[in-house]
Amino acid sequence: MATQPLINAGRLWNRLMALAEIGATPAGGVNRQALSDGEIAAWRRVIGWGLDAGLTPSTDAAGNLFLTLAGRDRAAPPLLLGSHLDSQPTGGKFDGAAGVMAALEATVSLAEQGDRPARDLIVVAWMNEEGSRFAPGMMGSEAFAGERDMAAIRVARDADGISVGEALDRLHAAFPDLPHRSLGFAVDAYLELHIEQGPLLEAAVRTIGVVTGIQGKKTFQVVVEGAEGHAGTLAQQERRDALAAFARIATALHEEIGSIDPDIKFTIGRLSVQPNAPSVVPSRIIFSIDLRHPDNSVLDAAGVRITALCGEHAPPCSVAVTPLVDAPSNAFDPRLRELIAQAAREQEFPATDILSAAGHDARHLAKVCPSAMVFIPCRDGASHVEHEWAEPDHVAAGASVLAQVLRELAFALTPFAGKTRGN
Amino acid sequence: MATQPLINAGRLWNRLMALAEIGATPAGGVNRQALSDGEIAAWRRVIGWGLDAGLTPSTDAAGNLFLTLAGRDRAAPPLLLGSHLDSQPTGGKFDGAAGVMAALEATVSLAEQGDRPARDLIVVAWMNEEGSRFAPGMMGSEAFAGERDMAAIRVARDADGISVGEALDRLHAAFPDLPHRSLGFAVDAYLELHIEQGPLLEAAVRTIGVVTGIQGKKTFQVVVEGAEGHAGTLAQQERRDALAAFARIATALHEEIGSIDPDIKFTIGRLSVQPNAPSVVPSRIIFSIDLRHPDNSVLDAAGVRITALCGEHAPPCSVAVTPLVDAPSNAFDPRLRELIAQAAREQEFPATDILSAAGHDARHLAKVCPSAMVFIPCRDGASHVEHEWAEPDHVAAGASVLAQVLRELAFALTPFAGKTRGN
């Protein structure tokens, strides 16, 4: 166990709670959607805390926020650690925010110790992880990793018709003095702490989850087209009722796809009806599908069946299924996982390997540098809900494990990624 | 056939088209919802046309608009004729507006003839017939007929949280000089022209529909309550997914209720999802049901099955079914129907008896005075759609039949309703 604390647990908790005031909902949750006024306010607060500790803020074309602690070799690829500050519309205090604040706390505590790290340490808050305002999510980390083009990202629009490009320009205009880094740069290693968003750590009474990888995910947008008509006059057999077709499709999907095996996760989370009036037969339904599974072959087969079932149950309406996200499952860097497990052992926190059921920005960083994640439990496994909760002790434990791994990497004379390549 | 025209068909058509400019949609339809700025603008135009012909405008606590042509006996119960000026969000140029403009044209033409009628003639535009902004519809005529209390009407809210009371006060504030009549007054007889909103007249090549009555209608609001959760982590078997429950309910309802017999009309037209985010299991679905049938016993039995099917298919979610409208089918006044049929015969317009599949304000007037309706065809039976269309000749024919019946009642020495009671 470390002889002296690696972080200031009280400060971390207080800052996390202070951050949760921005976008706070009456039911105790957080509504701080990507590129919103709330996220701009959160940036101001986080930048302020970074400046207090001598960290230098910057951004990039994708609206990611960076806070840099300068190392001895400014030219060496930096260590990157963080998560995201945006939330679901009825989200909680911890999803994303805990990871950014733990990364900031680990870095600030290290800076306060006075030793200059061998290379830059950069705390990051990725743009639009959630994808609730602008779909699909993880825009910032995907752009950083070179997987999605900024031109394509900028044209996505929210429900009010505002584009990502407009919202991004507005964010940047709110911080006119913030330096812009080029989009995507060489990184030595990436670390991310997150609440589990599932019940496994709590059930196993483990404080630290050493994340082995992330289950695969596919998302789709489906448009069902029928024909409008008067609810009181158009004969039932002459209708092309888009909502009736949707109900058949959704029932078939939930029955077949939802019961493939105990590991499948199938969700229709968003839906819109046109014209959405009580006495008009609906002409168009647009809905989202979120599909996840740890086994890529199961995921691919389910994706094929989704398209087939939509086609089978739509008539007399027509249907168009558009894939949005196709992210296969991945495995995190084994040596980073071992460093996390070792830190948990030394600090005497009960730990276990765990597969991430939810997607995270680390999925995209893993394609450009060695990456890993630390999970902490959340009450009842509940996340994306306003009563989402993590115990202060668990937040502190996770941040302390993160801080230990960070120190081992920060003061190593050889770059971590370089060692990987050398081995 | 009348020796000289009873109406000015060109003026009627031009005014109907001018009215359609208010709230015009790019696709050629009309979006002029109840108590909106569009409806206020429509009032201004219609009031102006009434004033030009010597009609006196007034309103009441329910936001109904009246235009009165004074008769010889101001104390005698007036003849009332009209329809509504509000539309569906993607409605057409004729639903409601054709009835108000035909009533205005018949009254203005009569006034121009110079003979003063025996009793007042009042053109009316009822408040919120459609029910698309504030549910349920027909608020103005129900309040007028004493069937619904203004206090209950005023608390209904639109999707933006604006109450009927607030919107009504805003409407009245826009017309500070308009006199207020007391809500609900004795009426001698009520006449309403409307497009059929169905395909029967067109298919039978009839210009005039003598409406025998209105099919019965029930509406419900259904709330399905589940539990929110993370789409990527919450196990399928532990979910209480409100959208999955809704899909099962809607499929069962469309299958069973939608196939009771060829006369049934079953529609789920409006639906909202909470929190409506792609990666959150939906916690709550609220949807509307619109059910219609000419036979009250079939309607009642279907209503019972709707509640039962919701209960059967909701678990593990809970469900609450709230009846909103329960309007049995009704028959219009036989003597007024004969006057309409006779006018059509004399003017040599092909006519037929027809049951109204859609609901109309006349349903509520029929409870307080002898009432009847004149239908005209609409292309392909399409209504509540932006391409809704009625031929100029058919609009003119309907208005001319309406004008002839109006003249027979307006100059009769004995009140029409009085005769009914006397017989």
Automatic annotation (TrEMBL), chains A, B:
Binding residues annotated for Zn(2+) 2, in chain numbering: D95, E130, H384
Record has Lipid biosynthesis as a keyword: no
Cofactor: Zn(2+)
Protein origin, superkingdom: Bacteria
Domain Peptidase M20 dimerisation residue range list: 213-315
Keyword tags: Hydrolase, Metal-binding, Zinc
Keyword Nucleotidyltransferase applies: no
Alphabetized GO MF terms: hydrolase activity, acting on carbon-nitrogen (but not peptide) bonds, in linear amidines; metal ion binding
Pfam families reported for this sequence: M20_dimer (PF07687), Peptidase_M20 (PF01546)
Binding site for Zn(2+) 1: H84, D95, H194
Binding note for cofactor: Binds 2 Zn(2+) ions per subunit.
Family stated for the protein in its record: Belongs to the peptidase M20 family.
Name the UniProt record assigns to this protein: Zn-dependent hydrolase
Biological source species: Bradyrhizobium commune
